[in-house]
Amino acid sequence: MVAVLSLTDNGRTIDLRVGHTVMLRLPENPSTGYGWAVDGDLRLVELGERSHVASSMTVGSGGESQWAIKATAPGTTTLRLKHWREWEGDRSVTERYEVTLVISP
Q1: 87 SS3 class
Q2: What is the pLDDT of residues 6-47, one digit of tens each?
Q3: CATH 1.20.1050.10 corresponds to the domain 3-104
Q4: What is the C-alpha separation between 11 and 21, in angstroms, rounded?
């Protein structure tokens, strides 16, 4: 079973072992133009491609973006994301997400 991180885990420290994977799921509504983007270092982890899971089939409905995060080396790193409109730059950031990953061999 793969552990799932969500918005409620923002600011937490998560223990992982090399080779283990966790899923990160964050609420997102692409029709607003806002989306989550990695904002920082990805040392010690491999981040899978982002996918979007709609909450309904209604046009403009929200849902969740999700990523698989695989621990690749021991150590400590911080995964940071920002919720923004990329074309508007950092002034459009509405929210930040951060988890510290402590990875053991």
Answers
A1: helix
A2: 999 999 999 999 999 999 999 998 888 999 999 888 889 999
A3: no
A4: 19
pLDDT tops 70 at residue 99: yes
Pairing state of beta strands 51-54 and 63-71? antiparallel
Task: Report d(CA 101, CA 81) in Å as an integer.
Answer: 14
How many residues appear in the chain? 105
Q: Which two tokens stand for residue 59?
A: 């046009």
Task: Give me the sign of the Cα torsion angle 13, 14, 19, 25.
Answer: negative
- What phi, psi does 73 have (nearest 5°)? -155, 150
Residue (of 36, 34, 33) closest to 24 by Cα position: 36
CA dihedral angle for residue 50, residue 56, residue 62, residue 68, rounded to 10 degrees: -20
Spans of all domains in the chain: 3-104
- Better-scored residue on pLDDT, 84 or 2: 84
CB-CB neighbours of 87 under 10 Å: 7
